[in-house]
Amino acid sequence: MTRTHKPTRRAFALAAMAVASIVLSGCATLAPAPAPERLPDLTGVSEALLPYYQQELAWRDCEGGFDCVEVTAPLDWADPSAGEIELAVIRQRARDGQSLGSLLTNPGGPGSSGFDFVRDSLDFAVGADLRRGYDVIGFDPRGVGRSTAVTCFDAAGMDAYLFGIPDGERNSPAWIDEVVADSKKFATACDRNSDGILGYIDTVSAARDLDLLRGVLGDTKLNYLGFSYGTFLGATYAELFPERVGRLVLDGAIDPSTSSIDVGTTQAIGFESALRAFMTDCLTQKSCPFRGTVDQGMADLGALLAAAERSPLPTPDGREVGSDTMLTGIIAALYAQESWSFLREALASALAGEGAQMIFLADFYYNREGGRYLDNSTEAFTAYNCMDYPVETDQAVIDAAAARVLAGAPTIAPYWSSDAPDLCEFWPVPAVGTRGPIHAAGAAPILVVGTTNDPATPYEWSVALSEQLDSGVLITRVGEGERWYLMHNGSVADAV
Q1: Predicted confidence (pLDDT) per residue in 62-95, tens digit
Q2: What pLDDT is recorded for position 23?
Q3: pLDDT tens for residues 341-361?
Q4: Do 3 and 420 contact (CB within 8 A), yes or no?
């Protein structure tokens, strides 16, 4: 029997953590003249939470033209006396000096750093018109990055976990035992090294943090730009606080009613579709390492994955590129059409028996550079998903999902589904999230942006979320890739 699961090696929302294409670079900023700070908004705040909403923010100059501050939030929103966490926040003040308020952003994940998103790529993250009118706010959600963070392995441990290749044949009892042992070791390390916060790393808690940030920044309404997982965070906020919704844009939506196993299944099919689009384009390029029809090219790519399963490719640093790492590298390059040239080169190199370029793509996905992991995105990603999504235990549902993946994504199916149990079965704390539609009754209009061949957040999810939301408005972009507003051109950017 085949189980579809979400270990870190093949997690659902797989590279929703990738902020942009591989060609993304940072942009310099110029700090405008300081504007007076707004008083906290305390409307509807309970007495127990007043100390948090009333806190004074000690902004400081940082990161070459930005302001930075730490905001204190309750560890447990149901029991504010049970402890505290810190949220790292960065701000670029409105460039015309007359701010319309704060514009909070989230780049996705879960687990991506909103702090780094704004610091490193402000002009990419937010269009010029919005930068002129709003104080742009980036923040690391609870469990992420500079905020009170989930911690699991050191760099060597992460390398072994993410890039290690089991000795047994895939799906054999020995292989399953190795995968289970790795999963248990990872979950145990996260529990041991995260200082008791794992039970509070969930999207509802993060959405309550979002309202705290709105309040301490002095905004009566939340203006918010969320991408990928950030759409789920924004929609959850709207469900909790519909009367406080200002202008919300949710780009590359996640369907909140979809189970974890359906997420994984839909994404597998989406990535197969994106891979076929890549192959169609590749076959028109002189540098393409494949020949013949699209079906022949896909068959040859499947053979390359199978070969890497049998004989992993060497790399200069001693790691090996097996089929799992190769698929991660392939998928990392499918998020933006601008990255397809990197994928052509990496596949040509892999066909020549070399793994260096493919592992570069996988390192990009995991935000690994020079032997170091630049953030904790993988750990935080796992923590949120294990808390937000109940584990599927119905074997009939699991088998049906595996059959759908095999039918709709035959090239990647052998490395997407497996007989090993879900990593979250071994998570130290049980899931608290429930899956269901979000209506946000009474909220102001919420703009949902979807792209028709988005592999990570398939278009059908944007349609579903826009239909669930009582005030949802859908904008459709026909084309490839995820999170189209980030391109800042055309009718989508105008509408945003």
Answers
A1: 998 999 999 999 999 999 999 999 999 999 999 8
A2: 42
A3: 999 999 999 999 999 999 999
A4: yes
Phi and psi for 202 in degrees, rounded to 5?
-145, 165
Token pair in block for residue 161? 């976990």
Closest by Cα among 76, 70, 71, 69 to 48: 76
Q: Which amino acid is at 356?
A: A
Residue in the block written with tokens 């099919």: 269
Buried b (16+ CB within 10 A) or exposed e, 183-197: bebbbebbbeebeeb
Report the chain's mean pLDDT, rounded to a whole number: 91
Backbone angle region of 323, left / alpha / beta, with phi > 0 → left and psi within -120 to 50 → alpha: alpha
User: What does pTM read for this prediction?
Assistant: 0.92
Distance between CA atoms of 82 and 79, rounded to whole angstroms? Answer: 6
Confidence of residue 420 (pLDDT cuts 50, 70, 90): very high
What distance separates the 2 farthest-apart alpha carbons in the chain? 69
Residue with tokens 């494949």: 290
Distance of alpha carbon 76 from alpha carbon 199, whole angstroms: 9
The DSSP bridge partners found for residue 489 are none
pLDDT tens, residue by residue, 287-320 = 999 999 999 999 999 999 999 999 999 999 999 9
Q: Write the class of the CATH domain 221-257+436-496.
A: alpha beta
Annotated domain spans of the chain:
221-257+436-496
Residue with tokens 């003040």: 93
466's enclosing H/E stretch is helix 459-468
pLDDT digits (tens, 9 = 90+) for 104-114: 999 999 999 99
Please give the backbone phi and psi of residue 449, each rounded to the nearest 5 degrees, phi first: -115, 130
**What is the full DSSP assignment across 22-90?**
TT------------PPPPPP-TT--GGGHHHHTPPP--EEETTTEEEEEEEEES-TT-GGG-EEEEEEE
pLDDT at 103 over 90: yes
The Cα-based distances of 198 to 91, 150, 344, 377, 394 in angstroms read 28, 7, 40, 14, 26
Is residue 236 a contact partner of residue 207, using CB atoms and an 8 Å limit? yes
Pairing mode of beta strands 84-92, 446-453? unpaired
Alpha helices in 217-322 (DSSP H): 229-240, 260-282, 294-310
H/E stretch holding 185 reads helix 173-193
Quote the CA–CA distance of 158 and 405 in Å, as a whole number: 28
Token look-up 């008791």 returns 196
